[in-house]
Amino acid sequence: MNIKKIAFIAFAQVAACGAAIAASAEEQAGIDFGIEDQTDAYVLETVTPKYPVEMLQRGIQGSTLLMLRVDEQGEVSDVRVLSSSSPAFSKSAIKSVKNWYFQPGTKNGRAVAQTVTVPVDFLIDDLQMPALASR
Known about the structure:
Layout: H1 3-28, E1 38-39, E2 42-45, H2 53-57, E3 62-70, E4 76-84, H3 87-97, E5 101-103, E6 105-107, E7 110-112, E8 114-122, H4 129-133
């Protein structure tokens, strides 16, 4: 191996160790590096969407992908359909998701509003028999 290469590798390793030691000392001193502590919103409570009767009678399954805003209190607003296999599924999914409750996302320890994407699937196999009998 070339001496210049060895010297460069050794210098890079020393520099990396020095940076790690310096970072550790700065962190202990409470210096803000501008790195944000952020978490994403997640679902706490859902309301099962009603299966559209006409789709159920025809044996049609499907899905809807929604984009929605979760505010600082975890409440849903501004629901939009990104894609859907049927307008009937979209309508039912929107009505359901408006009643969902989220743990809001955070930024540096404070609750913040976020936009999230939520899939809502309509599968006949997932239905319970009493739900079918009540229609």
